[in-house]
Amino acid sequence: MDVRRRPSKALRPAPKEPSSAPEPTGAKASDALPLPLYFTNALFFTLFFSVAYYLLLRWRDKIRNSVPLHIVTFSELAAILSLIASFIYLLGFFGIDFVQSFIARASNEAWDLVDEEEGEDHRHRLMACSPSIADHIIPAVSSAEDEEIVDLVVKGTIPSYALEVQLGDCQRAVRIRREALQRITRRSLQGLPLDGFDYGSILKQCCEMPVGYVQIPVGIAGPLLLDSFEYIVPMATTEGCIVASTNRGFKGIYASGGATSTILRDGMTRAPVVRFPSASRACHLKFFLDNPSNFQTLADEFNKSSNFARLQGVQCSIAGKNLYMRFSCTTGDAMGMNMVSKGVENVLAYLRNEYPDMDIISISGNFCSDKKPAAINWIEGRGKSAVCEVVIKEEVLKKVFRTSVATLVELNMLKNLAGSAVAGALGGFNAHASNIVSAIFIATGQDPAQNVESSHCITMMEAVNDGKDLHISVTMPSIEVGTIGGGTQLASQSACLDLLGVKGASKELPGANSRLLAKIVAGSVLAGELSLMAAIASGQLVESHMKYNRSTKDVSKVGS
Description:
Layout: H1 37-64, H2 74-112, H3 119-129, H4 131-137, H5 146-155, H6 163-167, H7 170-185, E1 218-226, E2 229-236, H8 242-255, E3 260-270, E4 273-275, H9 279-290, H10 295-302, E5 310-319, E6 322-330, H11 337-354, E7 359-362, H12 375-380, E8 383-392, H13 394-401, H14 405-422, E9 428-429, H15 433-444, H16 451-454, E10 457-464, E11 469-479, H17 491-500, H18 512-537, H19 541-548, H20 555-559
Parallel strand pairs: 9-10
Antiparallel strand pairs: 1-2, 3-6, 3-8, 4-6, 4-7, 5-6, 8-11, 10-11
């Protein structure tokens, strides 16, 4: 059963409150009655229940005497008319507030069912099933002035997350939501940009309830000479020196003849957890999944979900009565989390028929493992596993990086290898791989949270060619990138992908663009590692950060 979160009370229809304003002088509605109001109410109450009791007695006698009910006397007809009249009076007098309060309660209960990811879809289903109820839940506001709509949002009459659907204009919806937020919080959003962004492009795709967008500068570094091709790499960051340092690394790689890269593995993973009545039953399913003769059956079920998803394998782990199954599959040029999840659901449905005592606990049991540092990703890989290397010539080390081979080799051993081991690092045997990964991820529309495992990297350095030159490599087992879907479809991020030549899906070879992007990420990390380690070795780190990453300017005043 899904756990759904109740929307904020500020965004839900507010119950109708009695007006505190004094009644206007002059005639009142009750003045039209020939008798005092309390007496009239008592009269109709008495009449209603009296005639109802009288009719029940008459109908009971007719049933006992086998007299047809549709045959009525004059007194019975008068009683029926009195019953109808008194019911209409009581409904009109007491029913209005009841109906309004019922509608308000129905509105709140309806919004309780709206999931934060499925709110708009649920809204459409409500309107399709019962437009009249939907109209009560969200009043039609398409013809109202913006100021009136803002007041309705502030009062909670209109849920803020429903503005796009109700108005049919995303830009207008964001403007109204933003103004309502400022009035509710009494805080200004002046420094947060509003105009100049296509909010329709993120609807039901990238972000809910937007009120603006954050500006992150994009710098370029390059060219990166990788596998005999040159690439200009966009990097979105607010940390000074990152782009400049990476660019220096590119310069050294270019001067040394370029770097080479290889994709070792390519497979996104998802690992559901299921529970059995006993550990032996869990082991029985594990043996079934481990049996090579059953793989094709599983693959046929899994591959139904997509034209690109192809099951590669299933890795199982037992914890008591619980079984964790780590499915791995190719996903074309998409990062592939949704794709692999759909395939896993197909396999679970098949296994449920074969193992009716299997209880599906979660589609993700953290054995995947997504957006968390995990040894399984470090050892087995997730997404694209890449290695990138280059031999930096002695003269380049002296001229561009102002250091020596022996100095860098010793520093890498003591810092990246021994130092990280002392710290108990998991996949963190590098200087600053996450700086480069994050900058490229943000610029190209990747999931920034997947920087956690995508930055797993071990940097190796050793002297070659009789100790004159430096061989440096980075091995990154879990680079999770895609060139279609998610944030890659936004205009700015799409432009950065186009700059790299990996925009969209590859028409020649599915998955080629995403694999190339992973190689570029690895090559950029290689350059960043080389430059930063050289800066530390030559004592330039603090000096460069004090020069490029320390500002006393109040940027907020410039922006306003």
